[in-house]
Amino acid sequence: MPPARRNRCQFRVLAKKPTKGGQALFRRIGQTVALPPMQIDVDPVRQIASRVPAIRPATNADRKQIALLVAEGRADRPQFDSDRDLEDVEAHYAAPDGALLVSEDAGSVTAVGGYRRLDNESVELTRLRVVQSHRQNGLGRRMLRALADSAHRNGYKQLVVELNQEMGEARCLVTSEGFDLLRKTELSGTTLYFYKKLL
Fold first, then answer.
1. Higher-confidence residue: 3 or 160?
2. Partners of 35 in the β-ladder
3. Backbone angles phi, psi at 87, to 5 degrees
4. How far apart are CA 173 and CA 179, in angstroms?
């Protein structure tokens, strides 16, 4: 069996002064350091997952924070949203007819996503939102996959989602996760896109 290869990791120094114990910090920007095998985890997916809190079912105690997050994205579809489902999220999204999940960081809801039953085989995704400060770190993708897993466990075979033309990031996300475009429709001055994915 060949010897294990040593990991080589590039790093950038942000400080140059010595520590209190007299040990000088590295000074050369971009210096290459040899590390023993398995000393660090260089997989970016695992690094992101380790920093992101677990996704859990939403409760009525989360309603206020969910409403604030929904309001943050209100500009995406102002003429279509109604907040009646947020009056009692535990009842409105009760399994097996639905689910509403949240991710929380330091006591604040940073992402939300849910689905509701359309028929015996399909559910419609709704309320998929990520707070602006937590975007671009894979949280939306983790939420989307958690919703797909939940729907699959509840016996559904298909996810459906409706997005409008202003929701470009969300459309890119669902497309990258294997959703197919069913059709698009012009309505009230915007274009609606309908996607589906088989589970």
1. 160
2. 7
3. -70, -35
4. 9
Full strand arrangement of the beta sheet holding 98-105: 55-57, 98-105, 108-117, 122-130, 158-164, 190-198, 180-187
CA 176/CA 82 separation, integer angstroms: 28
CATH 3.40.630.30 intervals, the chain: 48-198
As a whole number of angstroms, the distance between CA 199 and CA 195 comes to 13
CB 147 within 8 A of CB 99: yes
pLDDT band, very low/low/confident/very high, at 41 (cuts 50, 70, 90): very low
The residue with tokens 């940073």 is 110
Report whether 191 contacts 184 (CB < 8 A): yes
Specify the pLDDT at position 15: 41
48-198 classified as CATH 3.40.630.30: yes
pTM given for the model: 0.70
